[in-house]
Specification:
This protein is of the alpha+beta class. A 5-stranded mixed sheet has the order 1-3-2-4-5, with helices on both faces. Strands 13, 14, 15 and 16 form a 4-stranded antiparallel sheet that branches. Strands 18-17-19-20 form a 4-stranded mixed sheet, sandwiched between helices. Strand 6 and strand 7 form a beta hairpin. Helix 21 crosses helix 22. The longest helix has 20 residues. It is globular.
């Protein structure tokens, strides 16, 4: 079978298309030069390996000779893995949304030979259906418009260029106040599904960034409804079909409003964010369910997601044997054949919604939505044994496709989550996983002093984005706090300097692409979140952390400038900027706990336990040994152990508490100090 240009690429997604009769180009300057030479428009197709509808469009269109012939005749065709080039994806996905279309993948954009978009969509079927024209009709009509209606093309490209050009002028916006942030959180409650949790309607995504803000605001402003909605959302996510009850780990989203039917792909970033969030909520609730889900999900990462060398792979596909969900679903008979007909099997069927008719296309997606509460201890242990038997049988099935490329930004999220969870749950092996992954990125994904975005088969791909640096800085700062090793703080300082040098937006914040990324028509600049927190939101927290950890006020000045640049947009469209809003909560009053004493001393475990039993998201923790001195600009400068005993100081902004020499008192004081009394009024969402 003939190969196209994608056969030389390392991306598993691009490799999936190397046998297509389409004359694909990877994203490269040569493709655009060819388009200019032939005066052909460019068809840009963006997807990713775990994308179900990407596979559907490939089977329906890209693998068909007649469709490929049309594509080759009329266009220069470029295929991009969105995970390998998120900067390209972000730019053209934004263009699609500016055209009034809902985003999603596969992304299908039509560009001029110089890369300017003028028309686009997502999935186009091979025949007219779903209210969409056929892909071949789209190809013919777009080519006709490009050839015959140059004025229309010029108008579209001019409009999109104006809309895509970064702008931060949203009008004068007052600084965020405690009252305003509390009001925004309270207003969000109307968007939450009171029964199933999550945002109202379907499809349902975890939206971790939104619920992290609700959790933080709920604790800070004593908004009990916010706290309860977060707990209810996590309950349903943990018990729903979105969770893999046999192998651990969460799918990307569900198509229904009950969290039952997932699109079965599993992404590293979702699981990293959920591990960290569940850990934070566990600190307040001590929920056995959350503790179990954290451990099971980390077990899945350790078992199925580590590449040689210790970093984490990107994703698992939704399909196996070309069928969505086949790896994960069961018939009642299959389960009976494995578990038998005894009492434990009957309890399992009742608990996990196993019926003869199934709950999805005649099969069963295991879930506990009809049995949300935990069973008694002996019954749960019996369920563990049943699940282990089913998992062993499932391992004999054909597995979904594994995208084993290593992404710096997603690994940063995983490193941070594992380090936090390992510290809170006293699991040194989880911290070791984080350290190994961090070492992989440091040793294999840096060239000439600069991070790269993607690694696979020993090859680096894609210039680092702001998200790569932001997430790795965050990972470094957490590892520094958890291990006490100065090298991680040094890395965070160095990488922040690179951000300031190559990604700085003069009007505030950071561009998504570096100033020497040469193959984009422009550099995206935004602070709005998508499935993960925006790099600017992450950097807002990083800068605040660097201030409390180093005492260098320049970090605080830059953080203030970043927030000022985007606060107008965040106040206008708050639901899209919850990562930034969480950062604003930190910046209003940077929080740190300084513990003067030996982090390896005999009483250190009691102090760590106190910190692990109260949620204080956004706070930094510094252990100060007897021979160590904090920077003079630190709020805790000069604070010492009292009478030779380990002593804690709670600092909110420039104000620090009196010495605390008892771990139980520290826990009580943290809960008292974190709360702020405000009058809550309505605010736009």
């Amino acid at each position: 079978m003939a190969l196209n240009r994608l056969s030389e690429e390392t991306s598993p997604y691009l490799q999936q298309h190397k046998h297509n009769p389409v004359e694909w180009w990877p994203w490269c300057q040569e493709a655009f030069e060819e388009a200019q030479r032939l005066d052909k428009p460019v068809l840009l197709s963006v997807g990713y390996a775990a994308c179900h509808w990407c596979h559907v469009m490939a089977h329906e269109s890209f693998e068909k000779e007649d469709t490929a012939e049309l594509m080759n005749q009329l266009f220069i065709n470029i295929k991009v893995d969105r995970e390998e080039r998120p900067d390209v994806d972000t730019l053209y996905m934004t263009a699609l949304q500016e055209l009034g279309e809902q985003g999603g993948w596969p992304l299908t954009m039509f560009l001029t030979p110089d890369g300017m978009p003028f028309f686009g969509g997502t999935y186009f079927p091979d025949k007219p259906r779903f209210g969409k024209p056929s892909f071949k009709d789209v190809l013919v009509n777009v080519a006709r418009v490009y050839a015959q209606e140059k004025e229309t093309i010029a108008q579209n490209t001019a409009y999109l260029k104006q809309r895509l050009t970064p702008r931060l002028n949203y009008g004068a916006a007052p600084e965020f106040s405690e009252e305003q942030l509390a009001a925004i959180a309270a207003k969000f409650i109307g968007a939450i599904d009171p029964t199933n949790g999550g945002l109202r309607g379907a499809p349902k995504f975890p939206n971790t960034t939104i619920f992290q803000f609700l959790w933080r605001a709920g604790l800070r402003y004593n908004l009990k409804t916010c706290i309860e909605e977060v707990k209810n959302t996590l309950l349903h996510i943990c018990q729903g079909g979105i969770y893999d009850h046999l192998g651990g780990g969460f799918s990307r989203y569900t198509v229904d409003e009950r969290w039952l039917v997932p699109h079965f792909e599993k992404m590293l970033y979702d699981n990293a964010l959920l591990i960290e969030f569940m850990t934070e909520v566990w600190k307040e609730t001590q929920s056995d369910r959350l503790k179990t889900r954290v451990a099971e999900t980390i077990g899945w990462l350790k078992r199925d997601m580590i590449v040689p060398g210790g970093a984490f792979a990107a994703s698992y596909d939704a399909d196996s044997d070309g069928i969505e969900g086949k790896f994960y679903v069961w018939s009642a008979r299959e389960i009976t054949d494995i578990l038998g007909h005894g009492e434990e099997a009957a309890i399992f069927a009742q608990t996990y919604d196993v019926t003869e008719g199934g709950n999805w296309e005649g099969k069963t997606i295991l879930n506990r939505l009809k049995a949300l509460a935990l069973l008694n201890g002996s019954e749960e242990r019996a369920m563990d044994e049943c699940r282990a038997k089913l998992l062993a049988e499932r391992e004999r099935r054909v597995k979904p496709g594994w995208d084993d490329k290593v992404l710096a930004d997603w690994n940063g999220l995983a490193i941070r989550a594992l380090a936090r969870a390992g510290d809170v749950f006293v699991q040194p092996d989880w911290i070791a996983l984080a350290v190994d992954a961090y070492g992989f990125v440091k040793s294999r994904m840096i060239e000439n002093g600069r991070l790269f975005h993607s690694w696979r088969d020993g090859k680096l791909k894609g210039p680092a984005t702001a998200a790569d640096y932001a997430n790795m800085i965050s990972a470094a700062l957490v590892l520094h706090q958890v291990t006490g090793e100065a090298r991680y703080l040094d890395d965070g300082v160095e990488w922040t300097a690179i951000m300031n040098r190559h990604y700085d937006a003069e009007q505030g914040g950071y561009y998504f692409a570096a100033d020497d990324t040469s193959d984009l028509i422009l550099r995206p600049l935004s602070a709005s979140d998508d499935a993960v927190p925006n790099a600017n939101a992450t950097m807002l927290q990083n800068l605040a952390d660097l201030y409390t950890l180093t005492g260098d006020a320049a970090y605080l000045t830059r953080a203030d400038g970043l927030l000022t640049a985007f606060q107008g947009a965040a106040q206008t469209m708050a639901i899209g900027y919850t990562g930034l809003l969480s950062g604003a909560l930190t910046l209003i009053s940077p929080q740190s706990i300084a513990i003067a004493g030996d982090r390896a001393g005999p009483d250190a475990a009691a102090w760590r336990r106190a910190l692990a039993e109260v949620s204080l998201p956004g706070a930094t923790v510094q252990w100060v040994s007897p021979d160590e001195t904090l920077p003079a600009s630190s709020p805790a400068f000069g604070k010492k152990a009292i009478g030779g005993n380990t002593t804690a100081y709670i600092c909110f902004g420039p104000r620090c508490s009196e010495p605390i020499t008892d771990p139980a008192t520290l826990k009580e004081r943290l809960k008292e100090e974190r709360a702020v009394s405000v009058q809550v009024a309505a605010s736009p969402v």
